[in-house]
């Protein structure tokens, strides 16, 4: 007689799968409860002192000036517009800082591996100094020891059309002409036509095996459109604006105030010192056998770097460099230390005037979080575009 073996059902309090789900749900409930407690406690505290949580104060008049700005602003504008002007100043530091620090980091990273003793030594000293000192100290040094000690505007002497004074750094720059819209339309059409001609010439070159110089045709189309536009408008899309001194201020050109220059240089040199080591590590990660094979084929060091080493190293470089970009964006809030009116500085002023501490801090938190997430998204897209495609 066969005995039937029956499986006993495991009680749910001893089931590992059930327990795992239970502890995760319990953890989420505890986190939500703690957040709710703090939020409710903050709202009750605001109610006790007669302040209600809300963002209606953003429509009130700011009543304070902003010394440096990209957009038009006056003290009669709202808190909302003042915060947005501070946000654009933060973007200005972040975007320019990322661009310059990337170039400087790549150059110094390549110099760290150079056969030239001077280039290798200068890069090494740069990294050791700027990477091992606090960024806030560097910003103070740039501001108080470098830019504020420059000559007064009355005593400054132009150097190749550039002025370096304690009122800021001023360079010749481009200003748009009245026909800029016409030029933009024509250039867009020229690019479309040029690409069509380039593609036709490239197809003929592939069919016949004879060089049809598609790039020259492309440049020729753009040149013809540009020449016709210049004949019609009698001016280019931009003109050079040269700075001049008028009394105790500069007019024309591009001006970097001491505050903006200090925060920009401080963040750039600090961030680039980390990017330098990331670039150096990325280049060293490429197999030496490939470099030796390229040298055996007679390729120069520049061509090896351009076509073999760096395209492979970029896949290793991008993820850690993204972290440095995020650090630069967040460290831009240190601009308040030298009086540059970024989002954090303007937000502090709004907070002190309105008394809306939680609301203003929440706005700044969301803005900085958005900048970081957008930067990460862009770099992740670029990272996916450069990675190896596996079968």
UniProtKB/TrEMBL annotation:
Locate the ABC transmembrane type-1 domain: which residues?
87-379
Name the InterPro entries on file: AA_ABC_transptr_permease_3TM, ArtM/GltK/GlnP/TcyL/YhdX-like, MetI-like, MetI-like_sf
- Membrane topology per the record? Multi-pass membrane protein
SUPFAM superfamilies hit by this protein: MetI-like (SSF161098)
Which GO BP terms sit in this record?
amino acid transport
Q: One Pfam family name from the record?
A: BPD_transp_1
Q: What is its main location?
A: membrane
**Which keywords accompany this UniProt record?**
Amino-acid transport, Cell membrane, Membrane, Transmembrane, Transmembrane helix, Transport
Q: Which residues cross the membrane?
A: 21-39, 93-114, 135-153, 173-194, 215-233, 260-279, 360-382
- Kindly list the GO CC terms recorded for this protein: ATP-binding cassette (ABC) transporter complex
- Whether Manganese counts among this entry's keywords is no
Under Gene Ontology molecular function, one entry of this record is:
transmembrane transporter activity
Where found? Cell membrane
The family note in this entry says: Belongs to the binding-protein-dependent transport system permease family. HisMQ subfamily.
Q: What is this protein called?
A: Amino acid ABC transporter permease
Q: Please name the source species.
A: Anaerobacillus alkalidiazotrophicus
Ranked from the top, the taxonomy reads: Bacteria, Bacillati, Bacillota, Bacilli, Bacillales
């Amino acid at each position: 007689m066969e005995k039937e073996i029956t499986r006993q059902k495991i009680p749910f309090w001893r089931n590992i799968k059930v327990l795992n789900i239970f502890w995760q749900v319990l953890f989420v409930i505890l986190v939500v409860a703690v957040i709710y407690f703090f939020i409710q406690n903050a709202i009750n505290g605001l109610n006790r002192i007669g302040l209600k949580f809300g963002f209606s104060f953003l429509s009130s008049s700011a009543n304070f000036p902003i010394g440096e700005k990209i957009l038009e602003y006056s003290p009669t504008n709202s808190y909302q517009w003042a915060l947005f002007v501070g946000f654009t100043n933060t973007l200005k530091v972040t975007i320019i800082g990322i661009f310059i620090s990337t170039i400087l980091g790549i150059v110094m990273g390549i110099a760290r591996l150079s056969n030239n003793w001077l280039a290798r030594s200068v890069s090494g000293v740069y990294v050791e100094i700027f990477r091992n000192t606090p960024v806030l100290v560097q910003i103070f040094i740039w501001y108080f020891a470098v830019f504020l000690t420059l000559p007064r505007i009355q005593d400054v002497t132009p150097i190749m059309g550039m002025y370096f004074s304690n009122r800021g750094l001023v360079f010749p720059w481009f200003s748009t002409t009245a026909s800029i819209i016409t030029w933009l339309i024509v250039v867009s059409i020229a690019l479309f036509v040029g690409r069509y001609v380039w593609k036709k010439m490239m197809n003929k070159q592939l069919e016949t095996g004879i060089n049809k110089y598609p790039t020259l045709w492309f440049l020729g189309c753009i040149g013809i459109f540009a020449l016709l536009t210049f004949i019609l408008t009698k001016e280019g899309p931009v003109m050079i604006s040269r700075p001049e001194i008028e009394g105790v201020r500069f007019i024309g050109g591009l001006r970097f105030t001491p505050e903006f220059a200090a925060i920009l240089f401080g963040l750039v040199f600090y961030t680039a010192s980390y990017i330098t080591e990331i670039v150096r590590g990325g280049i060293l990660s490429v197999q030496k056998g490939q470099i030796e094979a390229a040298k055996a084929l007679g390729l120069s060091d520049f061509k090896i770097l351009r076509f073999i080493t760096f395209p492979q190293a970029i896949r290793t470089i991008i993820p850690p460099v993204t972290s440095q970009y995020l650090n630069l964006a967040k460290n831009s809030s240190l601009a308040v230390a030298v009086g540059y009116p970024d989002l954090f500085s303007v937000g502090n002023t709004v907070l002190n005037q309105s008394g809306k501490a939680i609301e203003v801090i929440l706005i700044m938190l969301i803005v900085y979080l958005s900048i970081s997430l957008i930067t990460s998204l862009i770099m992740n897209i670029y990272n996916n575009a450069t990675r190896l495609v596996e079968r």
